[in-house]
C-alpha cells in the first residue's frame, strides 16, 4: 500500500507540474528546473512515506487491559489515547542500557498507579501482570505501585522508544530516585513491548470456533494430573510440579470438533507472538490423540487456580510421554483459543 501511494503521489505531483503550464506557459521548464521539481517531489514523498510508516507503527500499538477491571470488561487504549494519558515522567538510569549504565534518561509515560485507580482499584486484588509481545511477562505488587512511580513509558528523552530499547511500551522503574526498588524489581522486570495489563487474574475462557468454554465447562471433563517441570520460567517453583487440567482432545470433542477430519490444532495464547501466522503453536492430531497434551487450570498439592503471574488461568502443558519434538515447543501461556485446521 505504501509503495502504491508513493507512485500515486508522484504521479499526482508530476501531473501538477505539467498542469501549472497548461494555462499559459510560453516557455517549457528547462531540464534543470524539471530535475529540481522532481527531486523536491520525491523528497517530499520520501517524507510522507516515512511519516506514514511511523504513524502506522504507533497507531497499531494498543494496550489491552484485562482481568478484574472495574467494569468487568476488557479496555483497549489506542496509541493516541496512551499519548494523552502519558503525563507522568521519571528521570532514571535505564536498567538495560549496558553501554551507559549510569546515564539518566527522562522517561515519559502512563502511570501504572493511575491506570489502576481508573480502571481497576478493587481491594482484593494484590498484583498486576504485564504481558509482552514476545510472551514474556512480569508481575508487580499493587502495594509497590502505591509507593513508587512505576510507568509504562512511551518516550525516552522526548522520543518514541525504539523496539530494540523496549518500545513502544516499556515498563520503567524509578531506579535513580529509589535505589532500593532494585532489590525487588531487577532489570528483568523492565518489560519490553508490553501489550497487555492484567489486574489480578482473568476468568478462564477458551474459544473454539463459535463455542466459548469456561471453567465450569472444563471442570466437567475427566481431570488429569501431570507431574512436570514447567515449560516456561516465570514464578513457578523449580523442579517438578503437579499440573491439573483436561486433555486437549476432550476439550475439542466437547466443542464438537471431529478430530478425525482435523489435521492439526493451533493453540493461541494472549501474547501477540502466538497470533502471528508465521509462528503458530500447531499440534498434530495424532499427537493430540496419543500423548498427554493438557490445558492446565490448577496446580500443586492444593489444586490452586493458576494465577496470571504464572501464565494462567489456562496454560498448555505437555506430558513426559510426548515426543521431544512436541515437548520442545513453547508451552502456551494465557490460552485463549483453539483453532482446528482442516
Ligand atoms: N518483552 C521482554 N522484556 C524483557 C525480556 C524479554 O525476554 N522480553 N527479558 C528481560 C530480562 S531477563 C532482562 S535481563 C532484560 C534484558 O533482556 P535481554 O538481555 O534479552 O535484552 O529485559 C527484560 N525484559
Ligand atoms: Mo535477565
From TrEMBL:
<feature type="domain" description="Oxidoreductase molybdopterin-binding">
    <location>
        <begin position="57"/>
        <end position="174"/>
    </location>
</feature>
<dbReference type="Pfam" id="PF00174">
    <property type="entry name" value="Oxidored_molyb"/>
</dbReference>
<keyword id="KW-0732">Signal</keyword>
<dbReference type="InterPro" id="IPR000572">
    <property type="entry name" value="OxRdtase_Mopterin-bd_dom"/>
</dbReference>
<dbReference type="InterPro" id="IPR036374">
    <property type="entry name" value="OxRdtase_Mopterin-bd_sf"/>
</dbReference>
<protein>
    <submittedName>
        <fullName>Molybdopterin-dependent oxidoreductase</fullName>
    </submittedName>
</protein>
<feature type="signal peptide">
    <location>
        <begin position="1"/>
        <end position="23"/>
    </location>
</feature>
